[in-house]
Amino acid sequence: MQYKETEIQVKVGDITNVKADAIVNPANSYGLMGGGVALSIKEKGGAGIEKEATSKAPIPVGGAIATTAGKLKAKYVIHAPTMVEPAQPSNIRAIKKATLAALKRGSELGISSIAFPGMGTGVGGVPKDKAARAMIEAIKDFLQETRIEKILLIAYNQEMYKAFKDAMKNLGGGELI
After folding, report:
1. Burial state string for 124-157 with b = 16 or more CB within 10 A and e = fewer than 16
2. Does the reported pTM lie above 0.85?
3. By C-alpha distance, which of 10, 9, 12 is closest to 156?
4. Is the bond into 58 cis (omega within 30 degrees of 0)?
């Protein structure tokens, strides 16, 4: 769907296979990539991504850093913590902050496309529907003042896809692409 001047797409897939300027890692503040989306990014993109992320740590919840994407199709990995400690429970507030921080970092990098997984829904333990709503609220807030050409919401399963699709209704109007 179109929202403001941004195309927002929801797709089922593996974020590490997405072709976008940046993919988002729902990180921890230390930049360690030992589980969930982070581990998949490290395994497919290379250990150098984690090495670069940890060299820029600590990253506060509400902050975001960018690293190279190694062997991935993206140009950057944006690490936006949804938790301080690795494998710590996350929450709605942290997900909103992380989503907004990733979008701001992407904007600072001049990217035109960014891909998000379900932030905080893996090791963070936040229910998919609540996380998706928090992410959409943050995206909507960001797009009031700034523009990114394309935002991709990448669901790793049908349950996450449905959560993203239902949350998109909060944007009002338009059909999902």
Report:
1. bebebbbbbbbbbbbbeebbeeeebebbbbbbbe
2. yes
3. 12
4. yes
Cα separations in angstroms, 97 against 12, 45, 63, 119, 133? 24, 25, 8, 11, 13
CA distance between the termini of the chain: 5
Task: Record the tokens describing residue 42, joined without a space.
Answer: 């490290």
HSE-CB at 122 with a 13 A cutoff on CA atoms is 21
Nearest to 136 by CA among 106, 165, 158: 165
**Of 121, 124, 123, whose CA–CA distance to 153 is shortest?**
121
Tokens 């090791």, residue located: 123
Mean pLDDT, each 10-residue run in order, the chain (177 residues): 92 97 98 96 98 98 98 98 96 98 98 98 96 96 94 98 92 49
The encoded tokens of residue 111 equal: 């990217």
**Residue 130, pLDDT score:** 97
> Which domains does the chain possess?
2-171 (3.40.220.10)
Neighbours of 32 (CB within 10 A): 18
